[in-house]
Specification:
Layout: H1 2-57, H2 59-108, H3 111-124, H4 126-155
Length: 159
């Protein structure tokens, strides 16, 4: 009796997959048909404008007008791509910064790391350890500022 209920449940899962796959295929087909129709419409509009400009101003002007329109479309697409690429880089940089902060916070919350630090302070002594930590902090700050400056210079393309 348990196997028949398992089979019915498996059958329901398969029916759900078939239904979602069927609707996905239908929607994809409709989107492809709309894209083809838009391409054909755009082609006829371009041809009509080309013929209109050809009759009024001549072949050279018609070709230059068509080239100008498609050049503007290319510039718009390139600008959109460039903006999208910068947005992705900004998001990746923010995610890396969040991960770095999370790692630093988790390291400070680690009891083993804190216990080791306390043992080092007890063994070396606080008066001897403070100058070493201060020099290490300054060196770390200098390295971080140099790494940040080189990343900023690499991220900005030369124009």
């Amino acid at each position: 009796m348990g196997s028949s209920t398992g089979f019915a449940m498996f059958q329901r899962i398969l029916d759900g997959i078939r239904a979602s796959t069927g609707s996905t295929v239908r929607l994809t087909t409709l989107a492809a048909a709309a894209a083809v129709a838009l391409f054909v419409t755009t082609s006829f509009l371009c041809a009509a404008v080309f013929i209109l400009v050809l009759q009024r101003y001549g072949a050279v002007a018609a070709c230059l007008a068509g080239a100008g329109v498609f050049f503007l479309l290319t510039l718009a697409a390139a600008g959109s791509y460039y903006g999208y690429k910068r947005e992705l880089q900004r998001r990746a940089r923010e995610a890396a910064e969040r991960a770095a902060r999370s790692t630093a916070q988790s390291m400070l919350a680690d009891p083993m790391l804190l216990a080791t630090g306390l043992q080092i302070v007890r063994a070396v002594g606080l008066k001897r350890l403070l100058p070493i930590l201060a020099i290490g902090g300054v060196a770390l700050g200098l390295m971080a500022s140099r790494a940040g400056a080189s990343e900023d210079a690499a991220a900005e393309p030369a124009e």
